[in-house]
Amino acid sequence: KLASKERIRFLQFFRALQYVPFLNENTKKFRMLAKWAFAIVYTRCFETPDGDARIVPMADFFDHGTYPEVEISYDEEGNCYAYSTHDIPAGTPLHISYGDPTNPSYLFARYGFLDESSPATFCKIMIDNPSQELQNLGYDHSRMLFYKETGAVSEEVWDVLLYQELESIDPGTQQAFYNAHMNGDAATKQAIHEQYFPKTLAALNEHVDSFLRQLDELSKRAHGRDLKVHPRLPIILQHNEFVKETFLKVKANLQQL
Hints:
53% helix; two-stranded antiparallel sheet; globular; mainly alpha
């Protein structure tokens, strides 16, 4: 799904090229050239809080790090400044953050590398057009997490799953659970969690098992593919294995509950 968004953005970019008056027709129709230009800009630009995207020569040489040593800022005229966040010994590589370090799938889809230092990964519970209530409960890729080393599950995952389960079996309790969350009533939230824990646990187990089956199926389909035609296949499989290992640790933990 993440990669499909990048393809959609490229198609929008390619269509927009057709309306650029100073480009000749051959350039407008040169799809591989358009892909190259799109990839260069998309993987090297800096996105700013106001939604702008900027190309900054030299600054785009910084690699990504989960714990970056450098932060980027801009003045009112658009000049870019790189500041160290702490004392850095001579000869140390310098890193900035390309995005949320707990979402290696995003970094992989956009920049084409796997950040194995990521402490966690998005739990892959995909909800199209999540309601405001779900967002208030914590439905966000940076908060719905499975932790790589421990297999722990973030609180937001449990809250979102329980809220979804209650929608069909007990709407009244669903509203009470949401109100308790918004009002900071931890005791009521915990009581509802305990009452419906078997339902939530079953839902999470089913999600984990289903996603593991999907990963296995994707790996099977990759066997025998020509690497000259699919040069990114090895790193795609490496990414899938990274996610699989995290999910297996979560699965092992859930079996103990």
